[in-house]
Amino acid sequence: MLTNDDGIFAPGLAAIYKQLIHLGEVLVVAPADSQSGASHAVTFFEPLACAKADIGGLFSGFAVYGSPADCVKLAVIQLHKDPIDLVVAGINNGANVGINVYYSGTVAAAMEAAFLGIPSVAMSLAAEKEMDFDGAAEHCIDVLERLGPLKARDVINVNVPLLSRGDPKGIRVVAQATSGFHEYYIPQGDDEARTLFQLAGGGHRRELLPVDTTALAEGFITVTPLRPDMTDHAKIEPMKSQFSNDARHRSRGTL
């Protein structure tokens, strides 16, 4: 299954579709319009609209009036009767590295697949004025083939650097950066006497270890394995001791 967060008409989706069809049957279920920054939003309280769409004669797919996670959930549960072997999300217009992983609808679609027991790969291309999605698709399919068979719930995040600078220097398997950005808000007024705040800035903070943000900036394709489990397992046992006398604390307040 192929999806994205830029919308079913996005050139990045078409570019990777042309590569994926050489590997097997491809089902396209993508948002009807841009859902960039939608993260893992899911439609709960209203019906989810879906319509068939023909994309320039290249492929026919399903346009969903919802989020990327909606697309994956609807495809797996309702639209496709047979098991789905792999979910590919992308190619996104702009990198999804660092804390952008949490904001990204592209990565969220891949993570939704993991929730449903399906391996997935999120693919993104660093943003610039002229986006070479066809070139990025060739690099992404090479990474996908080199990954080999993925297991259920595997989530792999792939980012291609600026291609205007030439071919990538190679591939680096690195961790996700978590230090965030240098950001600030610009206050603005409007006609209704409100104050508007425009988020600005955007440079990544310094990282001490090799991570996806720095490797991508250096011109490498980054590959980062993610996981749907957000539990900090190392803290489970130490934290249990803090609550080992829980019964005593409860009895103290009994009348």
UniProtKB/TrEMBL annotation:
An example molecular function term from Gene Ontology annotations: 3'-nucleotidase activity
One GO CC term on file: cytoplasm
Origin superkingdom: Bacteria
Protein EC: 3.1.3.5
Keyword Hydrolase set for record: yes
Keyword NAD attached: no
Domain Survival protein SurE-like phosphatase/nucleotidase: 1-179
Cofactor: a divalent metal cation
Catalytic activity: a ribonucleoside 5'-phosphate + H2O = a ribonucleoside + phosphate
Entries under SUPFAM superfamilies matching the protein: SurE-like (SSF64167)
Top EC class, one word: hydrolase
Compartment(s) where it occurs, according to its Swiss-Prot or TrEMBL record: Cytoplasm
InterPro entries the record matches: SurE (IPR030048), SurE-like_Pase/nucleotidase (IPR002828), SurE-like_sf (IPR036523)
Binding site for a divalent metal cation: 5-6, 36, 92
Keywords noted in UniProt: Cytoplasm, Hydrolase, Metal-binding, Nucleotide-binding
CC cofactor note: Binds 1 divalent metal cation per subunit.
Family to which the UniProt record says this protein belongs: Belongs to the SurE nucleotidase family.
Summary of the function given for this chain in its UniProt record: Nucleotidase that shows phosphatase activity on nucleoside 5'-monophosphates.
Protein name: 5'-nucleotidase SurE
